[in-house]
Amino acid sequence: MDGDQEDGAALDEPQAVARAALEEFARDLSRLHIRCGEPSLRDLERATANGRYPLKPSTLSEAFRGKRLPPQRVVVELVRHLVGTNEAEREWVDRWSTVRQLQKEASSLQQQALADVRTEAERIRTDAADDAERMRAEAADLVDAAQQHAERIRLEAQRVKAEAEAEAERIKSAAREKAKRTKAAALKRAERLAEERGAEVALVVDEARSQADKLLTQARRVLAEAHEEAKRIRSEANGATPSASGQATADVRSKNLAPPRARGGGAFWTMTPAPPTPGIAERCYMCNRDVPLSRALTKMSPGGPLFRCLDCNELTVDKWEGPGTMPG
User: Fold this and answer.
1) Which are the contacts of 82, defined by CB distance < 8 A and separation ≥ 6?
2) How far apart are CA 267 and CA 204, in angstroms?
3) Considering just the CA atoms, what is the radius of gyration of the chain in Å?
4) Closest-CA residue to 282 (of 310, 253, 254)
5) pLDDT tens, 96-108?
6) CB 285 within 8 A of CB 317
7) In angstroms, what CA-CA distances link 18 with 13, 31, 71, 324?
8) Taking Cα atoms as reference points, which of 258, 255, 295, 248 lies closest to residue 275?
9) Cα(26)–Cα(302) distance, rounded to whole angstroms?
10) What is the pTM of this model?
11) From CA 48, how far away is CA 63, in angstroms rounded?
12) How far is the C-alpha of 231 from the C-alpha of 69, rounded, in Å?
């Protein structure tokens, strides 16, 4: 940056010198015009119309204002018309030559500077192109490196994913195996508990059966004793005298006439002593056997009186099957 500024200053200095020389030349030429009576530009044009180099007002105006350096012939013709001496003409020719030389030097320097600028610009362009190519190559290398890094990351991610899936599968397999073992243990425990409970239930059932068998045996024994007692009473009733028959009837009543069960209420119960008729077989429709029926307690029902069976101690209808002989 500082070098460019120095080059610009070195380029501007000859131009400034040439410009200052041109302005001084124009001021002196304008003073000469004033000292010589300051004829108008039209008068000068008419006065030099028949000469070798006619002076035009526009050319003279630019020469007096220092806009540009007029041609040498215009200066010589103007000085010849205003002063009219050879010395003055030579002086102004020398001054014109000096300004012209400064302008040429400045122009040459400017052209050289422009050439240098063009050369520097071309060098900069070439360097920029080289730098761009180098940067493009570096960018391509960076892109390749990034792609390779991305590929490595992708492969690493795939490996980690595969390991994670394998670990998950291992965990699931272990969980399934543990679940199987837990289920098998639970089934074994359930079977063991079921066997224990089954053994307990079987023991309870066996005890219940044993108790039921005992009760059934006792019931059968009691029933057999009752049958035997009934046979004995019937035998005594068949072979006894009337007084003995009355005594047997009283014994039967005392043994078998238990208070009736509360079945259907007791509003129709009546006490009707009626001794049984010996030699008549009666059927109990509860135990379905021919047994003597007690006439001690009866219950009146729409179908007739109900009598208590001396065998099963249940109420039954008095059904006469006709004459017969008591069994046993």
Assistant:
1) 32, 33, 36
2) 44
3) 80
4) 310
5) 999 999 988 888 8
6) yes
7) 9, 20, 16, 183
8) 295
9) 172
10) 0.36
11) 16
12) 183
